[in-house]
Design goal:
The structure is a single chain. The chain has helices spanning 12-15, 23-34, 49-61, 81-85, 94-105, 133-154, and strands at residues 4-10, 39-45, 64-70, 91-92, 117-121, 124-129. It has 156 residues and is α/β, with parallel strands linked by helices.
Length: 156
């Protein structure tokens, strides 16, 4: 059975069709390049805590071992992804967020505002990424080597 990876884009405007989602497809492209045998499941939700939590729980319920959420990690009032996801996590892995911010800071000084983070729920690893497509790739490249190890350790 192929490992399932969930990708959730958190964006009011993309979910309303104001513009196309670019960060979710970037995350899916990255996973497809690095892990071609993975089965990728996708959701697009508004910046609402309940919608975010429902998407996360649904994908976990479908057996996703890795969840990548893009968007909602900045300082704006509607950026609520960490607040939605943190109560669902068993553990937080601060090093992932630190590495993602450090890598992003090499490209933009505003990366310091990012609230990107990672944690686990059961055997699943959950990563919260910025909504900028370029930042999605930068952050995933910064932590990708640790993802396989984390999944192996979480699986017992």
């Amino acid at each position: 059975m192929r490992t399932k990876v969930g990708v959730v884009t958190v964006s009011d405007r993309a979910s309303q069709g104001v513009y196309p989602d670019r960060s979710g497809p970037e995350a899916m492209a990255f996973v497809g390049e690095r892990w071609p045998e993975a089965e990728i499941l996708y959701r697009l939700v508004p910046d609402e805590e309940e919608a975010i939590q429902e998407a996360v729980l649904a994908l976990l319920g479908e057996g996703c071992r890795l969840l990548l959420l893009t968007g909602g990690t900045g300082p704006a009032p509607r950026d609520r992804t960490p607040e939605a996801v943190l109560p669902l996590l068993d553990k937080v892995f601060p090093g992932f967020g630190e590495a993602m911010r450090l890598a992003s800071l090499r490209e933009t000084p505003t990366a310091i505002l990012s609230r990107a983070l990672a944690g686990s729920r059961g055997e699943a690893l959950v990563l919260l990424l910025p909504g900028n497509p370029r930042a999605v790739r930068t952050c995933l490249e910064a932590v990708w080597e640790a993802v396989a190890t984390a999944l192996r350790l979480l699986g017992g």
